Every structure is written in structure tokens, then in C-alpha cells.
Amino acid sequence: MRAMNRLRIALLTHSVNPRGGVVHTLELGRALHEMGHDVTVFAPARAGETMFRASPCRVVLARVESERQGMVRMVEQRIGALKRALVDEDASRFDVLHAQDSIGGNALAELKEAGAIRGFLRTVHHLDQFDDARLFHWQRRAWQDADEVLCVSDAWTRTMRETYGVVARTVTNGIDRTRYGACADGGANGLRERLGIGVGPVVLAVGGIEERKNTSMLLEAFALLRARRPSAQLVLAGGASLLDHDGYTRRFLARAGELELDISNEGTPVIVTGALPDSSMPALFRLADVVSMISLREGFGLVVLEALASERPVVVSRIAPFTEYLDERTCVFTDPDDAVSIAAALDRAIDGESGIDFIGATPALLRRFTWQSSAARHLDIYGKWLVHAPLVLNP
């Protein structure tokens, strides 16, 4: 086994887009790099795409065809691109190969089956629901063939154990508090003008328009809120996803029309920004009066920590994993299936009656979740796995 004071680590993520799993990959890589380890990040990318956030680690972009030809073909292309990039980089030279999703997990599973690598680790952030047999198979194989399975919350660690019989380990996310601190106010006025944000209040949701994010229910709640607060605006930021949300988005837009809520990328009651430059996100949080995270299913919910680090109240679903690390001193809980409950929670937060303690409880919470502590936990798991990993490749 290579000495633990310097490991060669490959971290695989599914895209270059600003999604939670990609953020996790980059920030974990940064923390491991700062601890003195040799980290390479692998990500599929179309021609012309670059990683959304700079990294001190070496980044290998596995080029894929630019045209999307259906979900199955797109996933297949990305698995193949990552596998080719790993072969070109001689994957066997890495001490640790760690996939953050099903795409990277399948690339590594194929190399493991071929005897090209000794094994790999896989982090399950959350699992999706697929009707297509190939997508279902790929998702299952990515954790089933892994030597170690990690999860970013106890809720998913329990799910993997109780539903799938997998003994997983919890390794949580972190937050870079300096990124979202008071200095993030710089540029907020320019962003406000570009997006056409008025006097507010402003409700911010990050993640685009997705069924899992419960965006349609948020729209219903916002309509109730706006009846009482006519100048309120809902800002839906982000949304760069590999999954197909077109049908859900069409229904969302149709319902917005029925509610007489105009939508554009600037100035209207509902502002859909699409993916924004990474540098704009801290300022966008600072423009919000309240941040909504009323998801129906989450792996962890990094946006919650980003909102709290920005000293903005956050309304979250009263479900795990949120209930594992939050309480009434750090968030406003709501029923994600009840628009009236959501609107009331948003109203309380806007009025400054959230009950969130930004002096004591919130800083204490943020100190619990650092990328440095996450990296240290990863290193402990890596070390224990390396003790038992095969010393030679399969014949």
C-alpha cells in the first residue's frame, strides 16, 4: 500500500455542470489537495464545455459527442468517454478510484471487470427512479460492483442498508463559509439590475424546474404569497441537468399562465435564470429574503448550508435528510405537499419571524460541516479499504 501521507486519488463526476454531486467532487478534491494528496478529477464534457468552477486539482475532461440522442444514449456515451479517459491515464496507477455517481461508477465497474483496476469506491448522493431497464441496470451496477459505498446522509445510508442490503458509510458534505460570507455582497446590485429584481421580497430556489425539487408546489405557494405581497418575486436559479425535465417544465409553465404569473429571465414575477456563472451565486443568495428548499427527495441539500452561510433564512421540507441536521433554530420546516403550509413558512421568514438563530445555532451548525472534516473522513475510509484491497490486478 502507498504511504498514507500522499495518495494518488481519482475522483469521477458525471458532468461539468453546477450540481450538488459535482460541487462535492470539486470541494472534496480541493480539501484532499490541500492536505497534500495528488488528486485528479475526471468529468465527461461536450466540445467547448469547461468545468463550472476552477479547481487546484488536475482536471481531465472526457470528451463526448455534442448531440444528445436520448437519455440512454447520452449515459452510454458518458460512461464510454470516462472509461476511455481512464484507460488513457492508466487508471491502475491511482491508489484510490472514487465515483460520485452512476456514470462514473459504471466506467469503473467495467474496468474492474476487465481486471484493469483493483476496485473502486462509490458515493451515493441519492438514487433516481427509472422506467428504462438499461438506466435501472446502470444505476444498480454502479453501487453493486463497488468495493465500498458511501452516502452523504444517514437517511441514504439507512436506505442502502434496509432496501438494498448494502453496508454503506456516511460521509457528509461541507461548506466554504468564506465564499458565502459578507464579502459576497459585492456585485449584488449589478446582478439585481441584470435580472430585473425589484423591491421584493425575493424568494430564491436553486436547482431549476424539477419534479424532485417540487418546483410546481413552490409555484402554488408563491401565488398565495404574492396575493398578500404583490411585489414579491420568485427567482428560480440553476437547472443544468442531464435528466429530462421537459415535460415537467411544460406543465409548470402552463400552470404559471393559469395563475397569471409572468415568467422570463428578468423582471417578471417569476424569474428563471438558467445556469448562472459560479461567481454570481454568492451575490444571488444575498439578494434573497428567503431561500426555499422544499424538495421531495434529496441526498443532503447543499443549498441549505449555502443559504445559512449567506445569513439567509431557509424553508425546508420536514423530511430526512433535512431533519437529521436541522432544527427550528436553523431553518423553518414545512410540509412539502401543502402549498398553504409553504406559503405561511415563507411569510414567517420574510417577516423576520423564522426563529433561526444566526448568532449561535447557525454558526455552530456550519462549523460541523467543513470540507476538511469530510476529506479527513474520506481518507480514513480510503486507508481502511487499501489495507484489504488486492495488491495485484486480476489475471
Account of the 3D structure:
With 395 residues, the protein is an alpha/beta fold. It has two domains: 8-174 and 370-388, 3-Layer(aba) Sandwich (Rossmann fold), CATH 3.40.50; 182-368, 3-Layer(aba) Sandwich (Rossmann fold). 41% of the residues lie in helices and 16% in strands. It is built from 14 helices and 14 strands. The protein has helices spanning 20-34, 71-88, 102-113, 133-144, 154-164, 188-195, 215-228, 246-258, 281-287, 302-309, 322-325, 339-350, 361-368, 371-388; strands at 8-12, 38-46, 58-64, 96-99, 121-124, 148-151, 169-170, 202-206, 233-237, 263-264, 270-274, 290-293, 314-317, 332-334. A seven-stranded parallel sheet has the order 3-2-1-4-5-6-7. The protein has a seven-stranded parallel sheet with strand order 10-11-9-8-12-13-14, sandwiched between helices. Helix 1 links the parallel strand 1 and strand 2 (38-46). The longest helix is centred in the first third of the chain and has 18 residues, at 71-88. It is globular and about 65 Å long. It starts with 7 loop residues before the first strand and ends in a 7-residue tail after the last helix.
What is the number of E strands? 14
Q: What strand order characterises the main sheet?
A: 3-2-1-4-5-6-7
Instruction: Specify the overall morphology.
Output: globular
CATH superfamily of the largest domain: Glycogen Phosphorylase B
Q: Report the total helices.
A: 14
- Give the helix level as a range of percent: 40-55%
Q: Which structural class best describes the helix and strand composition? A: alpha/beta
The CATH topology of the largest domain is Rossmann fold
* CATH architecture grouping of the largest domain: 3-Layer(aba) Sandwich
Poorly predicted tracts of residues: none
Average pLDDT rating: 92
Order of helices and strands: EHEEHEHEHEHEHEHEHEEHEHEHEHHH
Beta-strand fraction estimate: 15-25%
What is the distance, rounded to the nearest whole angstrom, between the alpha carbons of the first and last residues? 19 Å
Number of domains: 2
The CATH class of the largest domain, by name, is Alpha Beta
Rg on CA atoms, Å: 21 Å
Task: Specify the biggest β-sheet.
Answer: 7 strands, parallel
